[in-house]
Amino acid sequence: MKKTTGTDRTITSRWRPATQAVRGGTWRSEHGETSEALFLTSGYTYDDAQTVADRFAGNAQGMTYSRLQNPTVGMLEERIALMEGAEACRAQASGMAAMTTALLCQLQAGDHVVAARAAFGSCRWLVDNLLPKFGIATTVVDSAVNEQWDAAIRPETKVFFFETPANPTLDVVDLEYVCGLAKAHGITTVVDNAFASSALQKPMDFGADVVAYSATKLMDGQGRVLAGAVCGSQEWIDEVLLPFQRNTGPNCAPFNAWVVLKGLETLELRAMRQSENAVALGRFIEPRVPEIRHPGLPSHPSHALAMKQMRATGPIFAFDVGSRSKAFALLDALELIDLSNNIGDARSLMCHPASTTHAGMSEEARAEMGVTEGLLRINVGLEDVEDVKEDLDRALKAAGF
Questions:
Q1: Per-residue pLDDT tens for 339-397?
Q2: Which H or E run contains 228?
Q3: Domain 267-398 indexed as CATH 3.90.1150.10
Q4: Distance of CA 68 to CAs 106, 174, 230, 296, Å?
Q5: 315-343: per-residue pLDDT in tens?
Q6: What's this model's pTM, rounded to 2 decimal places?
Q7: Which of 63, 149, 184, 295 gets the highest tally of CB atoms within 10 A of its CB?
């Protein structure tokens, strides 16, 4: 592979984010292709036995096996790291592979994790079920209350784990405070940034150590593939994460990496426009629903904090219509907006978290998080927002609003 200026950090670090999203991490073969090449290979061949030995010993650069290196995946990792402002990145098979890897690679029996109580259902499953199986204690806190993070720290606390804005309640974490608190106690912060992406929010600018992603969401942006990513310092990625990933294999497929690379080229444009559409739609329905949870609206308790930490507040918000029957009546009346539990898509999507993304949790756990029977989560897409308003207006009327 011919590594062009797209991988020269002395050059790419000077580029602005929009340029990095299009050209960062570009490796070209001898053919000089403009679009990144797709390398569908599980292994590699070598000129001689000593080359193989040197590569496996770490004494020579080069590919050894696609569970460890792949040119297409490598390009994605470089580009995400550049956009995030991180030293390094490792791509993963999915968002949950990224979250699981980011936690398990650094924890062992006897450690303690403090996590946000409001989180994607599978992330809460990691905290509530998986980590305790391995003797790792966990405490969940109201992530929007700074004092609760401080009160939950123990001598054996190793990790703070949270997402902001949170899924699906849109709780907003004070990144500067929580990351600063963690550093003062030698605790590693792992931030799930999937609701925002680096186009809208950069947790490392506020002191986060590790940023994890479901690249399935905004990074792909068109509902095509599963992928994930974990960003951190070069030392942490190489010495903490990589040994776990090398031996457990939660790797991103080259084709999926290529698709996400194409998605990153338009990430900022999509994220900003979808954020604008989401604010417009939120303002439209706010007077008609019992409760709306939208960090882009002044009614959100952490609106000022969200505007401080984020360029825009993203395409996703939630609102409560009071009961499951009303939520289902609204969903069944939609004509344009699709019923889907995905987010970050260019299409407008809506789901009922209590019966989908958080269905695997107990009723008590959902209540603790604020995932009520009437809560609906919407991903606002790139359609004409007036069409989305008309569709939601019709559905609200059908549900009695």
A1: 999 999 999 999 999 999 999 888 888 998 899 999 999 999 999 999 999 999 999 99
A2: strand 228-232
A3: yes
A4: 19, 36, 15, 41
A5: 999 999 999 999 999 999 999 999 999 99
A6: 0.94
A7: 295
